[in-house]
Design a protein that fits this description.
The protein is α/β, with parallel strands linked by helices. It has 12 helices and 8 strands. The protein starts with 7 loop residues before the first strand and ends with a helix. It binds 3-hydroxy-3-methylglutaryl-coenzyme A and magnesium ion. The site of 3-hydroxy-3-methylglutaryl-coenzyme A has 26 residues, from α4, α5 and β5. Magnesium ion binds next to loops.
Length: 302
């Protein structure tokens, strides 16, 4: 199969990237980051998360962020909503897309959202119906699709089962997430192909964390089987509070560099993303975790 000619890149840095930072990041910084990403040309930015502030304190300013960002025309701003309380906040915040997030692993489901997979789907039912009723896009995310920090192996059938349940809820897009970055290319292809038996391939996305350094290889492997939506995090920010040791998502700058080299269009300005990566990394007081981003920034100084 030839590679897709266009890829949709969902920038998840402001949510997945920042949620795990120990030091509180002021809302103004998050807003400035989202605005920079909007200007860089992203059509979909995961901007915030309406979850319990006791569970994820960093996301407590989500309503402020959503209220003050400068929205781009037609840009989809997504937020995480684990239940109706989250959905109500998302509606008030004028989110364009809500994300219900489940897991292919029972153990991770309990740790992350405090319920079983079946209970989570029951909770999501009301959120999904409310999203449809209000004309919002609905995305489903499946954690631990390549392996779980608590139970280890996750079978293809357990991923497929959650894909089918999320499809039944009416998801417009479903993320296959390697939460702890353990997947390798052939495994990723097998999971994507199995998921595509339950849900249209064109609406499946790859959400890869780079813990074991496999994320770019996994993206390439996914392209080979026709996946054309990927998540990435500017400056490689991130990690999940309920997946200890997991590093950030694959860095957006690295993915863009790969896409440019492959002649795949994204509509996103790599230089502007490098700037956004340097901006947030300076604020966090550390170097960006993006090879391409740092190389491009260094080359500018020559
Ligand atoms: P719970 O304790 O079972 O919920 O948590 P509850 O309904 O019993 O409520 C307990 C308290 O939480 C109450 O407050 C509620 O008001 C409050 P209290 O009366 O104690 O003061 N509460 C909320 N507050 C604000 N917004 C809400 C909300 N819901 C309840 N929406 C719950 C269940 C799901 C809420 C909790 O477990 C939670 O918030 N978990 C969030 C976990 C999370 O955000 N994890 C990171 C995101 S997932 C991720 O990163 C993976 C992903 O990137 C893909 C991948 O890489 O795998 C997507
Ligand atoms: Mg993630």
């Amino acid at each position: 199969m030839s590679l897709p000619t266009h890829v949709k890149l969902v920038e998840v840095g402001p949510r997945d990237g920042l949620q795990n930072e120990a030091r509180t990041i002021p809302a103004e910084i998050k807003i400035a980051l989202v605005d920079r990403l909007t200007k860089a040309g992203f059509r979909n930015i995961e901007a915030a998360s309406f979850v319990s502030p006791k569970w994820v304190p960093q996301m407590a300013t989500s309503a402020d962020v959503m209220a003050q960002i400068v929205r781009g025309d037609g840009v989809v701003y997504s937020v995480l909503t684990p239940n109706m309380q989250g959905f109500d906040a998302a509606l008030l915040a004028r989110a364009d897309e809500v994300v219900i997030f489940g897991s292919a692993s029972e153990a991770f489901s309990q740790k992350n959202i405090n319920c079983s997979i079946a209970e989570s789907i029951d909770r999501f039912r009301a959120v999904a119906a409310a999203a449809k009723h209000n004309g919002m896009r609905l995305r489903g995310s499946i954690s631990c699709a390549m392996g779980c920090p608590y139970q280890g192996t996750v079978s293809l059938d357990s991923v497929a089962d959650v894909v089918a349940r999320l499809q039944a809820l009416g998801c417009d897009e479903i993320d296959i997430a390697d939460t702890i970055g353990v997947g390798t290319p052939h495994q990723v292809q097998a999971v994507m192909q199995r998921a595509a038996q339950e849900f249209p391939l064109a609406q499946l996305s790859g959400h890869f964390h780079d813990t074991y350094g496999q994320a770019l290889a996994n993206i390439y492997a996914s392209l080979e089987v026709g996946v054309a939506i990927f998540h990435a995090s500017v400056a490689g920010l991130g990690g999940c509070p309920y997946a200890k040791g997991a590093t950030g998502n694959v860095a957006t700058e690295d993915v863009l560099y790969l896409m440019q080299g492959l002649g795949i269009t994204t509509g996103i300005d790599l230089d502007a993303v490098v700037d956004a990566g340097q901006f947030i990394s300076q604020h966090l007081g550390r170097k960006a975790v993006s090879r391409a981003g740092n190389a491009i920034a260094a080359a500018r100084l020559r």
